[in-house]
Amino acid sequence: MSERVIPLVDQRTAALAARVPATPVAPTGLLADSLHRPLRDLRISVTDRCNFRCNYCMPKEVFDKDYPYLPHSDLLSFEEITRLTAVFLRHGVRKIRLTGGEPLLRRNIEALIAQLAALRTVDGLPPEITLTTNGSLLARKARALREAGLQRVTVSLDGLDDAVFRRMNDVDFPVADVLDGIAAARAAGLHPVKVNMVVKRGTNEHEILPMARHFRGTGTVLRFIEYMDVGATNGWRMDEVLPSHEVIARLRAELPLVPLDPSAPGETAQRWGYANAQSQHDPALGEVGVISSVTQAFCGDCNRARLSTEGRLYLCLFADRGYDLRSLLRGGASDADLASALGAIWQGRSDRYSELRASLPPESGQGKRRIEMSYIGG
Ligand code: SF4
Question: For ligand 1, atom 7, which residue shows the shortest CA distance?
Answer without folding.
Answer: 316
